[in-house]
Amino acid sequence: MRVTSLMTTSALALTLALVAPSGVLGAALFNSHQNPLVLQGVNGVSGSSGSSSGLLTSAAGPYTMFQHSAVPGYAMRAKELKLCDKNVKQSAGYFDVNGKHFFFWFFESRHKPSSDPLILWLNGGPGCSSLTGLFMELGPCSVSEGGKDTPINKNSWNSNANIIFLDQPTTVGFSYSDNANEDVSNTADAAQDVYNFLQLFLQANTKFASSPFHVTGESYAGHYIPAIASAILAGNADVGAPDSDEGLLEINLASIAIGNGLTDPEVQYAYYSEYACGNPYGPVFEQSECDTIASKYGTCKSLIGGCYRFQTAFTCVPGAIYCNSAMISPFQNTGLNIYDIRKECDSSNPLCYTILNDIEAYLNRADVQKELGVDVEYKGCNMQVNQRFMLAGDWMRPYVNLIPEIINDGVKVLIYAGDADFICNYMGNRAWTLELDWFGKDGFNEAPELDWVSKTTGRKAGIFRTYGELTYLTVYEAGHMVPYDQPEHSIEFINQWILGGNATFVL
Question: What PROSITE patterns has UniProt attached to this entry (predicted)?
């Protein structure tokens, strides 16, 4: 049986997730070159230097250690690197709390780091590493066959932005934990860890503290990103409050951008049958098969509706089991790439792309791991995390309900989707933006859909609709990983988005 995970979205039926390999990946303890200190809380770091700002720093071998009174119990260790793109300043390390260790890799902008925006990029899964985004999609470099080299990516999103790649939750990528009981199993708890990481990262890198900040990602990040934005806005509301932790920063959240995301399952699952027989590249099934899939949506919708109302594992797991089996499994049996219907699934990797093998080969090289300061076996996706979130009922929960309040706070929202992706297809993503209940719904629905002709290539690159703070964009000739399939177009639209300065998106 070929197991398909949401690489960036694990789209896998729960019944398949349950047969995925078990065993926690990367549950290694610190070794001597990683962290010789015992983290004892904010006042317990020996040899640390403090300031009135509440930031404490210390040296620990190749690392600089950071703690701050505003986020007690949390610590960050970082070291400068010369990997990937050696022409930009970069650092990597871990964010540590309660036996959880989150790996991050940060690259400064190729342009003007001190004034360019700051981006956080997240891949999905749940359980897949954001280093997939780094090396396969939008980072400063790619990987060559066998992981032997790292060619420069001229279309990297750090061309005009500083960018953080974060492996979360724990046991994803190079992240690990000392105690499985501390591992989170839902998006809301994961978002709080990310918020605390951002607090400490910005306290330690004050030149970015006031930069416009954009949370971006794809696939299951359609869950993660609304929750993270909500946590940031809640934290911002607490800054300066009488009972808030002294020294908390107000994070300058400017926008969120979700690519081929799973955000509103109740709406999105309705479009699997329509996409299968009505996508731009030709039908995947005979019409009778699409009709059969469509006939099962009524039960699927009812189950998801129960999850939306009660949001418990008991009410949410059944929808994940039934809907994924009824709506997604038929495609998995075709042998096509579920992330790009134009291609056959590459049998060398369960996630259909040979480059993922190359990324694993590179990141498991001894010299690369030594430079990164890690001793954890790197795997692109951890199916145990996928199973954990599934069994907690997280898959079908309505994180879409957080979007209106995010918009109400003046944060711009970009939803984009490649038109060749099946698993989080553009039809479903377009539909939920039209159904979203927010103050600008009527204006958004009445706004025209406009062709996007790329200034870079001169080609018709997509179609978009925009009104106020909300924009929806279909990207032509792209699958689930838009920056991988359309690198020139992806850097063009993301730069327009983060540098345009206007609430209305114009291409």
Answer: CARBOXYPEPT_SER_SER
Q: Which residue has the tokens 């399939």?
A: 485
Task: Report the C-alpha gap between 160 and 270 in whole angstroms.
Answer: 38
Structural tokens at position 200: 């400490």
**The overall pTM is greater than 0.85:** yes
Q: Is 419 helix (H, G, I), strand (E, B) or coil?
A: coil
Residues 6+ apart with CB under 8 A from 286: none
- Which amino acid makes up residue 235? G
Sorted by where each starts, the structural domains of the chain and their CATH numbers stand as 14-268+396-499 (3.40.50.1820)
CB 379 within 8 A of CB 33: no
DSSP-derived secondary structure letter, 325: I
Residue the block writes with tokens 């030594």: 370
The answer, yes or no, to whether the previous bond of 448 is cis (omega within 30 of 0) is no
Query: Rounded to a whole number, what is the largest CA-CA distance in the chain?
Result: 71
- Whole-Å CA distances, 351 to 7, 34, 55, 499: 6, 31, 42, 34
Taking only the tens place, the pLDDT of each residue in 44-56 is 233 334 443 688 9
Please give the Cα distance from 55 to 223 (Å, whole number): 32
- Give the amino acid at 205: N
DSSP class of residue 305 equals H
Alpha-carbon span 251 to 236, nearest angstrom: 7
DSSP designation for 381: B
CA distance 150 to 88: 14
Amino acid found at 148: K
CA 495 to CA 317: how far, in whole Å? 39
Closest CA relative to residue 486, chosen from 425, 422, 417: 417
List the one residue out of 123, 137, 131 whose CA is nearest residue 487: 137
Q: Which residues lie below 8 Å from residue 457, measured CB to CB, with a gap of 6+?
A: 488, 489
Structure tokens at 358: 């190359």
pLDDT digits (tens, 9 = 90+) for 304-355: 999 999 999 999 999 999 999 999 999 999 999 999 999 999 989 989 999 9
Calpha distance 80→89 (Å, rounded): 8
Query: Which residue from 500, 503, 478, 469 is spatially nearest to 160, judged by alpha carbons?
Result: 500
Q: Which residues are catalytic?
A: 219, 421, 480
Contact 140, 22 (CB under 8 A): no
Contact 301, 396 (CB under 8 A): no
CB 84 within 8 A of CB 139: yes
Q: Which of 507, 143, 160 shows the shortest CA–CA distance to 356?
A: 143
Residues of the chain short of pLDDT 50, as ranges, are: 1-5, 7-52, 503
Task: Classify each residue of 328-348 as buried b or exposed e, where b means 16 or more C-beta atoms within 10 Å of its C-beta.
Answer: bbbbbeeebbbbbbeeebeee
